[in-house]
Write a structure and sequence with these properties.
Elements (H helix, E strand, L loop, with lengths): L1 E5 L7 E5 L6 E5 L12 H9 L3 E6 L7 H18 L4 E6 L1 H13 L4 E4 L11 H7 L4 E6 L8 H10 L2 E5 L9 H16 L1
Helix pairs in contact: 1-6, 2-3, 3-4, 4-5
């Protein structure tokens, strides 16, 4: 069961809430919108299918060089907290969305955050590596050992230094043939954090 949601913000942020009657929620940040990333992404759907919680998969509003997309993620997180309670919401993001999830989590402190193949930074000011050092919540970083697409290594190094939960899969950036497995790994971490 799913529910269509319009996030109350000055940007056009819409999403799909899967399993809306659950008592906790994962906010799922899609990959780069200029490269076809949206709420229907297979990695976001894999997490939604695997997690025993509601999953809010949203689309970013109009492109704004990462700044508006970060605002969109923070608005989605705020919406989910209003509906489920601050202690019942976690974040997840893939690729570009992984960096966005790290940045939003450093500012707004969800219960936990998981980043799947996150890019290290979007701009000098939107630096996911720095955000990792500012997090106050549990962190999981999942990456593909054959990923030659994204610059994820600096984020991995920062996550290791922080003592984050690290998961490596023998996969490329897109987790071809491993999408379901990646979804289960992320879901297990987030479910544990949400209790």
């Amino acid at each position: 069961m799913s529910e269509s949601i319009v996030v109350p913000t000055d940007r056009d942020v819409r999403g799909t809430l899967d399993e809306p009657t659950a008592d906790a929620c994962v906010v799922a940040c899609p990959p780069h919108p200029r490269m076809g990333g949206d709420r229907t992404d297979s990695r976001l759907r894999a997490v939604s299918d695997a997690v025993d919680a509601a999953c809010f998969r949203f689309d970013y509003g109009p492109w704004d060089d990462g700044y508006g997309e970060l605002a969109d993620a923070r608005a989605a997180l705020s919406w989910a907290r209003d509906r489920y309670g601050a202690d019942r919401v976690a974040m997840f993001g893939y690729s570009f969305g992984g960096c966005i999830a790290l940045l939003a989590s450093a500012r707004d402190d969800p219960v936990a955050v998981s980043a799947l193949a996150p890019v290290a930074r979007l701009t000098d000011e939107l630096d996911g590596v720095s955000a990792i050092g500012e997090l106050d919540c549990p962190l999981q970083l999942v990456y593909g050992s054959r990923d030659t697409t994204a610059d994820w290594e600096p984020a991995l190094e920062a996550a290791r230094k922080r003592g984050a939960t690290i998961e490596e899969l023998p996969a490329d950036h897109f987790f071809v043939g491993r999408t379901t497995e990646a979804g289960r790994i992320v879901a297990a971490f987030l479910e544990d954090a949400l209790g």
